[in-house]
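Pilot study result, target chain (239 residues):
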Amino acid sequence: MDILEHGLQKMGYTLGDRQREQFEVYSREILDWNRKLNLTTITDYEKMQVVHFLDSLTLAQAAKPGTLENGCRLIDVGTGAGLPGIPLKIVFPSLKVTLLEATAKKTEFLKYLVSVLKLDEIEVVTARAEDQARLGKYREAFDIVTARAVTQLAALAELTLPFCIIGGRCILPKKGDTAREIEEAGKAVETLGGTIAAIQNIDLEGLDDNRHLVVLEKTAPTPDKYPRRSGMPEKRPIK
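Predicted structure:
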């Protein structure tokens, strides 16, 4: 985990022995389960530390100061192999994390992983975001919402902003030239009760694909009609 530790030190964080062990176990379990599940195309330990772990942890740079250390609620929408939710939980143990994933086989892995890593205050939910965001326990209940999904920002806004409290943030990783995508998402973000608060560039050693974080600030309640039924945010983004 030397690459991970070096990258975290540049961000201003250090790993304890238990955290280092948790990341080592996490790496092994991803590769082991990857034989039967399509969790990742990354099968190199060194690359995993950068592309999965450090990339996930860059989200901390877009959180409000002190938020992650003070037990805030975070939901990771479409978490897949637990990224970025689990790396953030390991580094910031006081986080209350919900991992939301629609594929039952992947949530089976996540429940096993949470047990093996001995993580507390972390919930694994098998559901689509469009359905879960309509439930009172989850709607506008989280300080931080993230989604690492590769989909257009307008659709991501509809899948994430309904979960976010007023004053909270959706932190959405992107890469490449997304200027037009961000511009086109402005109407959707506004309609859903948010604003595009910042575009934060991320510099990770070994990656040169223009990674950045789109930060949405929740400023007003999301109208009851959103999110629309499953599949609609991506098929017909708000314009």
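One observation from the pilot: Residues 61 and 154 are 23 Å apart (CA to CA). A full batch analysis is planned for the follow-on phase.
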